Amino acid sequence: MAEVGEVTIKRTESYSYIFIRKKGSYQQMGKAVRALFASAARRALTPQPPLHGVYYNSPQEVPDAELDWELRLPIFGTFPHQHENRRGIGVSRVDAEQVAATIHKGPYDQVGKTYQVLGLWIAKNGYHVCGPAEEVYLNDPRQVAPEELLTEVRLPVTKG
Q: What is the C-alpha separation between 117 and 3, in angstroms, rounded?
């Protein structure tokens, strides 16, 4: 069973990252992670985990074929923006932002409850979501059981 941690408001840090942008089912995620790490190695970029997922829509809004998502692997250094290539891979930088965040403990496919809790907290406390959802994967699914997975769920917010 999944657990949801306490919700906090915090400011994230800016960072450079290599990304892969995808459209379609989340079943592509494993292949996308491998492609992202391989591309970072080919470009001699030094990863600075953890891996981040950014979600521009959700399975509650659109069919699987229309899901729009991106995986980001933070990298050491500062790099100019490089548009995504034909495989959807590029390099960019994200600025610091204010987010409402909580920890989801449990399988990735049970994160929906965490989003519900986070959304209710945001509305109850006078905030508004102002950007796409982000998940920060704090441990490795190849090394821990699904019920022990830790994911920080973030939604960018403004007050008022």
A: 11
